[in-house]
Amino acid sequence: MQLGFTKCTTEHGVYVKGNHIAEILIICLYVDDLLITSGELKNIQAFKEEMQAEFEMSDLGELSYFLGMEFRRTNRGILMHQTKYATDVLKRFQMMNCNTVATPIEVGIGLSQGDADCAVDKTLYREMIGSLRYVCNSRPDLAYGVGLVSRYMESPKQSHMSAVNRIFRYLKGTLGYGIMYPANRNRGCNESSLIAFSDADWCGDKTDRKSTTWYLFLFNNAPISWCSKKQDVVALSTCESEYIAASLNPVAHGRSKHIETRFHYIREQVSKGKVKVEHCKSENQLADLFTKPLKRDRFEKLRHNIGVENGS
């Protein structure tokens, strides 16, 4: 802080200095590890010299691995992936030699808490889910499937385990995939785009009739935040379900007056001009990837559109 950095209000491990794209310096801190980035190499070098004057530090060079995440610079940008971690997970659960599939969740799957088939090892099931959830940090295309099977950790059955195994089979076939953060060729340009998509199904869970909320934030056409989860309340209509999804996204109508005040945050932001809400046509709605199982062609198209690519 003595060097003029400001702590990020939402990510307390991120510190920022400067305003203009050419002078801005961003530090990501985890315990005693630092990630440093800037629009100019000289800013990074100056910061390193200031820190080395005060502390004993090791310069590990350009970022390639951090907290299980791998980074590779290409001529198109930087690919963030977890190939090593995903490979280790597949080996751990003896899925390295499995047959691959093109999608993580089968269309028409009907999982529920009341499935009558045989129970499976609860501890193993939870370990598999936990491993998949960490892979989701660089694989938003897994978010819906992993969120779906996570609902049954209390009493998993064979049908639930089969769905988990399918996600592993999909992961095996897409080991080299990750998020591509494209290079900004216009170095003197301050313009950046932050776009959010949100949607929800209606009563998608047949057990408790709760809906699934989904949101995705794209910064310069690359995903930086996403979520697929069940809503905490039962929506009484598709209108209400989608309204709740939008409010959770932090972007009325007579039908919506009964919805709690906390869901009207979005209206306030729109009135202040901080958020612009636009209708999204079905063919451009990235939300489909996070709210329901899709056939292969549609799934692969949306996967590409959210910036998940094969980097191998």
Detailed description of the structure:
The protein is of the alpha+beta class. Among the domains are: 6-61, no CATH class; 184-278, no CATH class. The protein is built from nine helices and twelve strands. The protein has helices spanning 41-54, 83-92, 122-135, 143-149, 158-173, 238-248, 265-271, 288-291, 296-305; strands at 6-7, 14-17, 25-30, 33-38, 65-66, 69-73, 77-81, 177-182, 194-200, 212-219, 222-230, 308-310. The strands form three sheets. The chain has a five-stranded antiparallel β-sheet. It has a four-stranded antiparallel β-sheet with strand order 1-2-3-4. A three-stranded antiparallel β-sheet has the order 9-10-11. Helix 3 (122-135) packs parallel to helix 5. The two termini are 40 Å apart. It comes from Lupinus luteus. This is Reverse transcriptase Ty1/copia-type domain-containing protein. Pfam families: RVT_2.
